[in-house]
Amino acid sequence: MAGNKQVRVAGRPPGIPQAEHFEIVDSDMPAIGAGQILVRNLFLSVEPAMRGWLVDKSNYSQPIEIGSVMRALAVGEVIESRAPGFASGDRLMGWFGWQEFAAAAPDTVIRKVDDTDLSPSLALGVLGLNGVTALLGLEKVGRPVAGDTVVVSTAAGSVGSAVGQIAKLLGCRTVGIAGGAEKVAICRDEFGYDVAIDYRTPGLEQALAAACPGGANVYFDNTAGAISDAVYRQLAVYARIVACGTASVASWDPIPTGPRVERIIMTRRATMGGFVVLDHMAEFNAASGRLAQWVREGKLRYREEIVDGIERCPGAIADLYNGLNLGKRLIRLV
Amino acid sequence: MAGNKQVRVAGRPPGIPQAEHFEIVDSDMPAIGAGQILVRNLFLSVEPAMRGWLVDKSNYSQPIEIGSVMRALAVGEVIESRAPGFASGDRLMGWFGWQEFAAAAPDTVIRKVDDTDLSPSLALGVLGLNGVTALLGLEKVGRPVAGDTVVVSTAAGSVGSAVGQIAKLLGCRTVGIAGGAEKVAICRDEFGYDVAIDYRTPGLEQALAAACPGGANVYFDNTAGAISDAVYRQLAVYARIVACGTASVASWDPIPTGPRVERIIMTRRATMGGFVVLDHMAEFNAASGRLAQWVREGKLRYREEIVDGIERCPGAIADLYNGLNLGKRLIRLV
């Protein structure tokens, strides 16, 4: 019987998870019990949020135990089913972990991937956690109205690029912030931002002021840090901030300092709201369906960076944070 | 003909307004034109918010011009009317300024003070800007539900004391933060807080953790600064922060630094919302009426600190910020 390569957590990362915090283990092919399914993973997902999942502290999810398989979303194919409603050959997206095979309970499945006209890999990116985060975070916390100016940080990223395009579809002006000339060009040419700003060149604040003459009505924040400080100063009255990620903060222990936000929040009567998509899984399928329709109509573009082999998992989270990736990072197994 | 003593703005305060930023001027008794009313002020209000009104910068209200009469709410009596709907003897609460007499347009009137069973001074405090701020800020941004733990800073102050009592009336547990043993005792004995904490004694964080075993569901923030930093660390999931005042921050120029909030906001899926009561003046009368009913029923207590003479105005704002006052500060003129 074939084995099952797994990526297990070898140590708790103090900041951004590095390759050394994981180990690849050759395990036995799992046997499934009654009510379970055996899934062969096709694509494994890599998320910036994995950093938070690995923290051993009060957080929005249970910390992952040292020694266990790394928690991850994956797209896989059912190769054996002892659970009603699932059959061999079904393609599923769910919490199958960084491993080749998963003996899974039905409640780890998020959805069946039955969009046969679209690549199954999309179920992990623009139609998955990233796209759904963009759509629901924007709508629920950002509450954009046509004519609003929407500012997005990590504007070329998997979440940010979807936010910018969806805001545009909703009739907003979009301002993207990204790092480096290549990403800025992609923001403008591929994701349709009205203005794209390179935060690495001097003058971020002036560029933002010029890009938001009436202020920023919505700020979809994937970075926190100095980028956010600059955006806060451009907030319009009644602005909404979606606190969705903190990519630019290398470590939260100890908590870094920055300019206090209370007075801007108060005087602009702004709202800063945290968004974690895992709170909204009941709406996942419907949101994914809306995104798929936009993809089919050519209105929602995406980039994927697919690399082959489970050996690429351990260093993959750190890659997301070094700013080098250009698209949804996926590990292809089959 | 009698004169009209006025308190005019003599200079723009860099931080908290001090007596030197005002001058008392003997002016002529104003003459009213068609459509105006002549109001004799009985009580002048002193607000922490006056600091913000005096700032020469982007803010929620037009900055007050140097040389003009200090913007202030007052309760006064109509002594001459050339405006329909107003008659001599009417008691009014409105934007009549720090002066003895005001030639006022009807749109400066916020409401007629016809609760003859209650002191007219209450129209400036528990039934005025302070009480209405407490009620609407708590309901609109704090959105408490019965059973919630509601934490209040400046818990013994004019706004905070009303927040604590209203939260209690709505079925919440209340935790008040105040400075000094006397205020803490008042919080407990007079305003009914379940727990009152003196932020000046060591161990604020431990005291908060003990007072909020399930976390703080609502934080009504009148201080910002280190007090808020300690409360943020106790926020429950889905907590709501009402950013209503920044009493503990001596100057916002330059913006002081503090621990970044983005990660707490995100992981707790908290919401921080700015509240300025001036956005909600259409609801003022109804809110004031609800507060008056609670006062009549003995369910809503208040403290007033009334001092006599317009000469007490210039130093009155700084008094609010030195933490020595115990109740709504009013200047009685008549």
Automatic annotation (TrEMBL), chains A, B:
Keywords: Oxidoreductase
Domain Oxidoreductase N-terminal: 5-108
Domain Alcohol dehydrogenase-like C-terminal positions: 159-284
Membrane spanning residue stretches: none
GO molecular function: oxidoreductase activity, acting on the CH-CH group of donors, NAD or NADP as acceptor
Coiled coil region boundaries: none
Record has Transport as a keyword: no
InterPro entries, per database record: ADH-like_C (IPR013149), ADH_N_2 (IPR041694), GroES-like_sf (IPR011032), MDR_fam (IPR045010), NAD(P)-bd_dom_sf (IPR036291)
Protein name: Enoyl reductase (ER) domain-containing protein
